[in-house]
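<goal> How does this chain fold?
<body> The protein record starts here
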Amino acid sequence: MSRTVIVTGGFGSLGVAVGRAFAQAGWQVALVDRAPQPQPAVCDEFSGHLLLGNVNLADLTETSNAFSQVDHRFGGVDALINVAGGFRWETLDDGDLATWDLLYQMNLRTAATCCKVALAHLKSRGAGRIVNIAAGAAIKAPLGMGAYAASKAGVMRLTEALAEELKDHLITVNAILPSIIDTPQNRAEMVDADFTRWVQPSQIAEVILFLASNAASSITGASIPVNGRI
């Protein structure tokens, strides 16, 4: 039986890399995103899979409808990878408190909503995998990253609590803590950085693919740094 994975934030650089790794491993892939549609090259690459845009992943009804489409198309859901999220840099003194609400919605609320919706689908399979994307900043927040770090720390705590909740359902829940990811957006924002030290999306995707495998069935509640050479 083919296995099915849902990748939220699936139209972005990391989401596409994760989807690619699973597709190459023989999984059926659903990329789900708030954006209306992916780049044409992504549509071509994932023909035969499922691409769902315009989904507010912080909204329970919209997320439920999207995940039901995946279940209907592929006959079940075996893994959820929560890549969806966002970033803002600002100090508390010069920044806006609304940023804290925004990043809560983008990072923690989306992960919690998607996990909640996915549970019935995963339980019906008798086992499953959830992998969340937190951040290295969740452990120690650098300057200007208080709101971002707080939201990602919430993702870590969600991961730990949900892992305990789902132990007896054979559903593992783990988190990845990346450092700076080598994406076009990050390169544009940090033009003087040494990009060769950053972690590649494909490297993160390989760790996630391992966590979704049978070999990782005994790993749950873990937060795993994937730092490149930072």
Summary: The two ends are 40 Å apart (CA to CA). The mean pLDDT is 97. The helical segments are 13-24, 40-45, 60-74, 98-125, 146-166, 184-189, 201-211.
